[in-house]
Design goal:
The chain is an alpha/beta fold and 316 residues long. It is built from twelve helices and ten strands. The strands form two sheets. The protein has a five-stranded parallel sheet with strand order 3-2-1-4-5, covered by helices on one side. It has a five-stranded parallel sheet with strand order 7-6-8-9-10, sandwiched between helices. Strand 2, helix 3 and strand 3 form a beta-alpha-beta unit. Helix 2 runs parallel beside helix 5 and helix 6 crosses helix 7. The termini are far apart.
Length: 316
């Protein structure tokens, strides 16, 4: 028998993946205000999950095949992870009363909308909810700032890392941007994960920044989020930090390639988030930077940054 009032949502992926489903989560909350929404996602994302007003509980789930549900069967399982089949199989194993997912040929008995690869990631999940007559607002991406104080505020954040080499703009280009912005009188910091300390250090050294400007490996997710939330500007590639900038309303210059911004970028009408994109689509998992990404110059980034900084100054 289904336990009325429990909705299990699967999204066992990364930071940017989490932030793109916030509108869908809020749609579920509005549709089922009295139900308990449990999000199956990686434990390291907890500081951001705690900021989402549509989630009651995080069920630590590091990836597909690791969903562990010990309670009674939920009244609904919602697949916001992917197209299947593994994500569907994981949710089917908890025996929900109903399941909301895209249809997959391995599960012909489970209805759902067709999967379209080229949809924007935010629109994809709002469209899935619409299939079940659940309204959601794809613009509802904003999050409140973390409760902890930022290590620094009003800084320019340079985030040179990315999940794959295909999406990684050259370190020397980031260093050029950081050096010029610093020479203009801005406090510039370089962020990154523990695995990106050497990259961030190299960028800071070439830019002439002091060691104190390197925050890579020195912040957990909550601390990184606080820095981004209080920053004057973020410069990064197609990464989770770019989605953080969108969530907190921090102006950003986002370098895209090989995945187009129409699929993973900020809302197209968000004037404080500018994407630079050469139009060259490629393999997002390739072992070398996308040619279109390489064609973006430091001068283009600096010009865009100057425009955004000027806009913020005019708006006070």
């Amino acid at each position: 028998m289904a336990l009325t009032g429990t909705i299990l949502v699967l999204r066992a992926l990364g930071l940017g993946d989490l932030l793109t489903i916030v509108p869908a989560l809020r749609g579920l909350r509005t549709a089922y205000p009295d139900d308990r929404v449990v999000l199956a996602a990686p434990e390291p994302l907890r500081p951001l999950v705690d900021l989402i007003d549509a989630v009651d509980e995080l069920l630590p789930t590091p990836g597909l095949g690791s969903l562990r549900w010990s309670g009674a069967s939920p009244r609904m399982a919602v697949n916001l992870h992917g197209s299947g089949p593994q994500s569907i199989r994981d949710l089917a194993a908890v025996r929900p009363a109903t399941m909301l997912t895209h249809r997959h040929p391995d599960f012909p008995e489970i209805p759902g909308p067709r999967w379209f690869a080229e949809l924007h990631e935010v629109q994809r999940w709002c469209r899935l909810l619409a299939y079940a007559r659940i309204d959601s607002d794809p613009r509802a991406l904003a999050l409140p700032k973390p409760d902890i104080a930022a290590a620094e505020s009003n800084v320019i954040v340079i985030h040179p890392g990315a999940a794959s080499n295909a999406r990684r703009w050259p370190a020397e280009h980031f260093a050029t941007v950081a050096r010029e912005l610093s020479a203009d009188g801005h406090r510039v910091v370089v962020t990154g994960s523990a695995d990106e300390v050497s990259l961030a250090t190299a960028v800071a050294r070439e830019a002439g920044l002091p060691p104190s400007a390197v925050y890579a490996g020195r912040t957990d997710l909550a601390e990184l989020a606080a820095i981004v939330a209080d920053a004057a500007l973020v410069v990064c590639g197609d990464t989770g930090v770019g989605h953080l900038a969108t969530a907190f309303g921090t102006p950003s210059v986002l370098l895209f390639g090989p995945t187009p911004p129409r699929v993973w970028g900020p809302p197209p009408d968000a004037r404080s988030h500018v994407t630079l994109w050469a139009g060259v689509v490629g393999d997002p998992h390739a072992d070398r930077p996308n040619p279109g990404l390489l064609s973006i110059t430091p001068q283009q980034v600096l010009s865009t940054a100057a425009t955004l900084i000027g806009q913020e100054a005019r708006h006070g």
